[in-house]
Amino acid sequence: MAATSDQGFAVPVLPLSSGKPMPRVGLGTASFPHCEDGDQPHVRDAVLRGIDAGYRHFDTAAVYGTERAIGDAAAEAVRAGTLASRDELYITSKLWIADAHPGRVLPALRKTLRNLQMEYVDLYLVHFPVSMKPQEGGAGAILVKEDLVAMDMKGVWEEMEECHRQGLAKAIGVSNFACKKLEYLLSFAQIIPAVNQSRWRCICTAVKTSCAHSVGRKGSSSAPTLHWVAREHHGPTILSWKALSSSRSPRTSAKPSLRFVLGGYTSRAIA
């Protein structure tokens, strides 16, 4: 299944258990170090260029500090006529671990929506299967190992379900959940997570999610955002691998890398 962009090429989409189909190719907006959400013209410009290039799926998170820039770019694209409305976009955001507590989920999503200047997100994810003690004066973007605590997963997921019922999140899911965490969540969830987003790259698979097959038609692994891995480990990058780039072929290293990643998720996606 695919949707055709304004540029005339087909963008593959993945039907989920709720909400509209998710474009399988998206633009991630995480940057390091993370910063406070505010005016970030470089992120806004990157998102605008992405929209012009045909991207419709944009991935962010409360901790990334890029929600406001995405909202600014979306509003500008609508004003310019590049987009007919916000509904043409697919926006994913995530609940940070300092807000992964009963009583804090709905307020966290409402803050995300204020940053995005939107009435809803298409997909809202629990960022990690762990919580952190709330920090004074904010959600606590800095991860403090000593403040990590076990998540009240049942209480948190009940509030995620309420986010969906209120129409603030068209689909809800999780991120970085391994098999045992997923099995526990599925034992009590009234609304099955539509997505388990995890890293999937040519050089590493961060979370074992082969058990996604046991979820059957009730769940799905999400398609990842292709991002440059240059210098991530301060050494040779995958884009420099000779096996992926040949002088006899017009293909760049990025193209077979993207094919590998999408191929991996084709076998792992369960609608």
Architecture overview:
The protein is an alpha/beta fold and 271 residues long. Helices cover 28% and strands 14% of the residues. The protein contains 6 helices and 13 strands. The protein has a 6-stranded parallel β-sheet with strand order 4-5-6-7-10-11. Helix 5 links the parallel strand 10 and strand 11. The longest helix is centred in the last third of the chain and has 15 residues. It is globular, with a radius of gyration of 18 Å. It starts with a strand and ends with a helix. 38% of the residues are buried. The C terminus is likely disordered.
What profile does the largest beta sheet have?
A: 6 strands, parallel
Share of residues in helices: 25-40%
- State the oligomer: single chain
- What integer is the average pLDDT? 79
Class from helix and strand fractions: alpha/beta
Strand order of the largest sheet: 4-5-6-7-10-11
Low-confidence stretches: 209-236, 265-271
N-to-C order of helices and strands: EEEEHEHEHEEEHEHEEEH
Coarse morphology: globular
- Count of alpha/pi helices: 6
The rounded distance between the terminal residues' Cα atoms is: 12 Å
Pfam families: Aldo_ket_red (PF00248)
Domain NADP-dependent oxidoreductase: 25-201
InterPro entries: AKR (IPR020471), Aldo/ket_reductase_CS (IPR018170), NAD(P)_OxRdtase_dom_sf (IPR036812), NADP_OxRdtase_dom (IPR023210)
Protein name: NADP-dependent oxidoreductase domain-containing protein
